[in-house]
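Q: Joint fold for the lines below.
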Amino acid sequence: MIVEMKTGASQGEVDDVVQKARSQGLGVQLNKGTDKTVVALLGSNTGQLSTDIFAVLPGVESVTRIMKPYKLASREVKSQDTLVSCSGVEVGAERIVIMAGPCAVESKEQLMEVGAAVKKAGASVLRGGAFKPRTSPFSFQGLQKAGLELLAQAREQIGIPVVTEVVDPHDVELVSGYADILQIGSRNMQNYALLTNVGKSRSPVVLKRGFACTITEWLTAADYLLAEGNDQVILCERGIRTFEDSVRFSLDISAIPVLKRSSHLPVIVDPSHAAGYYSLVPAIAKAAVAAGADGLLIEVHPNPKEALVDGLQSLTPSDFTRLMEELRTIAKSVGRYI
Amino acid sequence: MIVEMKTGASQGEVDDVVQKARSQGLGVQLNKGTDKTVVALLGSNTGQLSTDIFAVLPGVESVTRIMKPYKLASREVKSQDTLVSCSGVEVGAERIVIMAGPCAVESKEQLMEVGAAVKKAGASVLRGGAFKPRTSPFSFQGLQKAGLELLAQAREQIGIPVVTEVVDPHDVELVSGYADILQIGSRNMQNYALLTNVGKSRSPVVLKRGFACTITEWLTAADYLLAEGNDQVILCERGIRTFEDSVRFSLDISAIPVLKRSSHLPVIVDPSHAAGYYSLVPAIAKAAVAAGADGLLIEVHPNPKEALVDGLQSLTPSDFTRLMEELRTIAKSVGRYI
Amino acid sequence: MIVEMKTGASQGEVDDVVQKARSQGLGVQLNKGTDKTVVALLGSNTGQLSTDIFAVLPGVESVTRIMKPYKLASREVKSQDTLVSCSGVEVGAERIVIMAGPCAVESKEQLMEVGAAVKKAGASVLRGGAFKPRTSPFSFQGLQKAGLELLAQAREQIGIPVVTEVVDPHDVELVSGYADILQIGSRNMQNYALLTNVGKSRSPVVLKRGFACTITEWLTAADYLLAEGNDQVILCERGIRTFEDSVRFSLDISAIPVLKRSSHLPVIVDPSHAAGYYSLVPAIAKAAVAAGADGLLIEVHPNPKEALVDGLQSLTPSDFTRLMEELRTIAKSVGRYI
Amino acid sequence: MIVEMKTGASQGEVDDVVQKARSQGLGVQLNKGTDKTVVALLGSNTGQLSTDIFAVLPGVESVTRIMKPYKLASREVKSQDTLVSCSGVEVGAERIVIMAGPCAVESKEQLMEVGAAVKKAGASVLRGGAFKPRTSPFSFQGLQKAGLELLAQAREQIGIPVVTEVVDPHDVELVSGYADILQIGSRNMQNYALLTNVGKSRSPVVLKRGFACTITEWLTAADYLLAEGNDQVILCERGIRTFEDSVRFSLDISAIPVLKRSSHLPVIVDPSHAAGYYSLVPAIAKAAVAAGADGLLIEVHPNPKEALVDGLQSLTPSDFTRLMEELRTIAKSVGRYI
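A: Joint structure:
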């Protein structure tokens, strides 16, 4: 942490900074420049320390953090890639993992039809929402517990693991009983009560990026899960909020190489929620694989015209099958397979 | 809702749109332009209807919503201003309501000292956090239940109502037992489980704007509370995420006149979390009052240098007292008082 | 264009809208809904008409544009892809065009060395800046005319076309005399004096996206060039400004499929300025090719450590050569070649 | 400037950083932490030095700038407020300066009518655009030279100074011949050819903030003007681009106190372009004065319904007169006058 004093700060003000630092167990090195004094604070935990406790002192101009505020999710703490194991499917290995299925579980017929179709096309995980966080209270809120039961049936019948979202901290145990992988949605990335409870479970978890959160904040949220002992964390980039209005969210493609450099956790991409429009999904999905994503989360619906939720961004099974062919050649060209 | 067909869309494609609209109980008016057909869909509930169900149909170029997706929070549904009554303090009336206090309740001494000071300076509500949502799992998380008890003591001893944040949907009843006003934080504005439970309570509630949510999304979140029967809703602008990095968040000053035009709910402003820096707080607070805010939520700490949370953005009691003097003259100049 | 009247708007207010529309030569269709009247305005030029002239009338709630404000750049006006021919190199065809070279022309040795290296690795156009728009007046501003002369020498000696930026509207003729392709930089995308003059020239032009401009605004800027008669326009996505601070700009990968849908102009991508950091460039470059880009603009410097401008985002010739190998396999996997 | 080495960086890599720094004339202080080495670079010009020249060296993790990249516009270089003198009107003094008039000069009648009206209501400068940068090539582009002549007539007849925009670097002398104050528009804030030429003139200049530029970038653009010797610079906040879509741009109210803290230049606010809608203008204007703005730039049109440009955001003369009354009481409440 670097504390820049104001031009003309008094010796007493510098001393106060030094004393505060020492009281926190930090090492101190003074740099007296021509115009101003700069104090370097040294220690292994400065990333977790608030910059405010120094910025608030008189005579301080600014405080700059050098260490990142996250720790357990960082590559500095763990240099090897983490592999997340989901009922037999490994995320973060050479194989790129495709999770596909409907936005919302609507009925047994719908789920079984799409589940069979995506598995046949090469998906290794079935996705489907039972609890649906909706922006409007007047929209369909999901089948809830009945949806979980359908997911469990689908897993058994079709033979692939399932991933579904948990929205209430008190439902973690319930949802873990039915699903192989828990999903924390974008709007809940900083729901700390939920993060803490999911961290206490041992289920693999897909942590979606908050749509207006920086990568640093995202990895700090991952630290909540890791700090509770759950190291089975998959990061999912799903688009960020920008001024561009031709898509629902702007997919942050550079998040993939940035995360690969700064974290050991596997990274998947959800092109469907970012685009918000089915015809844009294939280009974004291909880009994500080319950029190094470890997997994709794609919405597929047997009949998008009749979907209760997000039909516009869902692929049909035949579109999905065609996309899978293209993704296979891209995967191969970056030394991986699907 | 306006459905624009693609240039060259077939008659059958137009018919499908018309039929879908009629099946939803909507009126239909066809506009055949020189280049393309535009279909207007008419009905009183088109704001709550998903645009996707039309956008997904073949031959459709775009679908534009005319009605807003929120309803109960809108001035079209209720034209008179809502007054929120908080244990004797009215928000939304001629008097501008100042809520002040520490970010986090740290101890009895701290809370009583600052509570007495802000009341003396003219604040009518005491704020203080017991449950603290923190970006890092390694930061101080609040005194929790012990903090609530201190707040209840402060209310009794100092004689002003208290506002505090609730973060877990299952704590709504607990927190309501201690506090006069519940606060839903920015990171929870779209936590629908929490919104639903707070909506079921009858406590007045401060709904902070999600830091990356539009005003439309914010009012749609307010609809969750109103739809459950809680009409004691105060909106709180607290800054939005932008590219500007000299402040923590950019206060959206134009949100005040926009909300006054489109909603009947009272609006307050939190300059402390927006600025993130104490010396910027007074200018923003004064601007908010001049722009028509019904109240302010300001952080005050007896000794910001020792604050466990957000010391940098807290005013000292003496700075707060001076600011209150300035705010009184501004309030008077816009025909109100404090 | 759709004009939504306020609830309770009078007949006279509706009549005024209708009359205004007719005075502009527009067709009118009235839609009287249960709550409010909606007026559809029909005509082939409503995209170029200001919405304000209706929004300002009494009784009007909102005005929504259905037609896009750009015209000549749109696929509706020209459905076939435009091929831009640059001294023998075609942009927009099956071959993906790689433009590479240093950010700034620094010396003859530097330019010849990197020019030969990028050509050998497969680049078909040499890039290099002679006029450098710099955020600080104290930074190196480019070799200017001497830089143009070096570029012309490099073109002759190495045998590939060159692209360079023009920043002053009065330099268009000068720069056209030396370069095969003009570049309009991100900060000049809405410099209309410059757009008009480049539009009057017949040189192919790379129009970079303004870093905070929507795709609609970008295509409207392209209309300035096209309206003056220059149809040799290449669009270049180079990252947009967002809240994310781990990169210089966030590359908008979905701009590629969005542009392919709405415009006939070829699209290239500049991963170097987006990332701002050399080690992120390859992932973004590969993603762009997978998503359908028609070309790339990449910074290469023989010795990034000594570069006068943007060394941090420049690849070395050997890194570039390795990247070209990877790009060739990706290009092949999407049915193209380099 | 602070250079953070990677964990495990070699002694040779640290030495290279030290040597590079010394070659730039910088002082160096080494901080060997428990995990990593941090090198502080000291000198009075580190703000103007590119961070890249260090970031590109092997073994470097990150480089953090402590000094700001701007210099001449900073309060550290000049602590007293700058007063800008515009043909008898001082900007930055106790009197708040109101500049008002039409977006575009349309005719002699229009300009004289609105000029007389705004002067009568208390404005001290008349604004009016002769060269109009328009997003669409099909929109009205201004009366150009004829508009300048009308402005000069209005100045003489009405007796107040005029401000107008210059868009082409080669028109600076021409426009200076007619106008008292030059305006550099938002889209030209980083048009360096224009900045340089305006910097060479001695006319007072209103430098509008680029709508997606940080305050740091804005002050660095001001340095271009100051470095050429023009110290008569007025900064104008006019709204920034955010995700919020209920206004054209989000006015950054906190820019006012931030600028007052970091720069000596006067600050005015343009509420009209930010809001984009006349009924929002008064609230934003009042907020700006309360927050400490030194002036306002407001659009007024005798008949907004017939305005050729931006009618929707223009006040009528009678609305403007009413607003001026309200602004006077706000000004008084912050110790100033109009």
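Q: Anything notable?
A: The CA atoms of residues 271 and 285 of chain D lie 6 Å apart. The first helix of chain D runs from residue 11 to 23.
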